[in-house]
Design goal:
Layout lengths: L5 E11 L6 H23 L10 H15 L5 H32 L3 H6 L1 H27 L17 E3 L9 E10 L5 E7 L9 H12 L5 E3 L7 H10 L3 E3 L8 H7 L2 H10 L1 H13 L3 E2 L3 H29 L1
Parallel strand pairs: 1-5, 1-7, 5-6
Antiparallel strand pairs: 1-3, 2-3, 3-4
Helix pairs in contact: 1-2, 1-3, 1-5, 2-3, 3-5
Length: 326
Amino acid sequence: MVKGRKLRVDTTVVETNIHYPTDSSLLGDGARVLTRTMKRIEEKAGGLKGKIRDRMRSVKKRVVAIALATRRTGPQREERQREQYAKLLRVTRKILNPAKGVLEDVGHMTVPGRRRLRALTEVLETMSDRVRQVVQQTRARIFEGMTHLSGKIVSVFEPQTEIIRKGKANKPTEFGNLVAVQEAENQIITDYRVFAERPSDRELLVPAVEEHQRRIGRVPRAVAADAGFYSQANEKKMQEMGVRWVAVPNRSTHSPERRKLEKRRWFRAAQRWRTGSEGGISVLKRRHGLNRCRYRGFAGMERWVGLGIIADNLIHIGARLAVQGA
């Protein structure tokens, strides 16, 4: 069923289950979770030193005002946005400060009391750190004009989410994690990887061949991928490993020899076979839910992708066995 003579590799983005991120919505999400968690701690502890104030009405008013300011046109738009963001940041800080006090109050409780509130205090501490990060990146973008920040988060619930741009016309920006999928014959997926940080496609091709050899026990005779995977070093390394036909286009070349190579029959046939991986990924997304992960966290993302790929492989294996038994 899988002889391992051919290998094709492609990447896609599996989106996390989040709404479209804006600074105001992230601040609103964080403020809501902090307020709710502090109230639960107060209730479960039977009271704290200071009473927890619910400032969510003010937060919602500021979020709506920012949305309305975004629709405006003219020079007053940015000024109005900065004014509303300044108010929203002030309210958010008034929620963050009591959160620190609540953690200190819990720290002074007895051991049984701290143990009873451990789950809630962990949520409060984690969410406080994330909201502080959102406050910093909001201040940097709105008031300092800095849009590229290290450690930027686009969801307080799924902080592992990355901003990925793959040049799609219908969806230029995606929010999720990059997934690499490699297939052998008969549309059988032999390996996949979910990346916490997006690597260059060029870094994935040789490891895919090495993993193919480890799993199948042989080096593929033909390897096909799109132009994003091309590098001269990759091509040379695979040929040294024993790959006979490397069908990865080089779009930036001006070499007549290279162009002649890419017009050869075996190269075009391998590229036609490669395009099937795009259809396979589309099926994974439509039939098996890999368009959006419904599980939480990076471990949940890996589990969701793995289950979808197992289901897809079972269908293709069953179809192949049915043909062989007919």
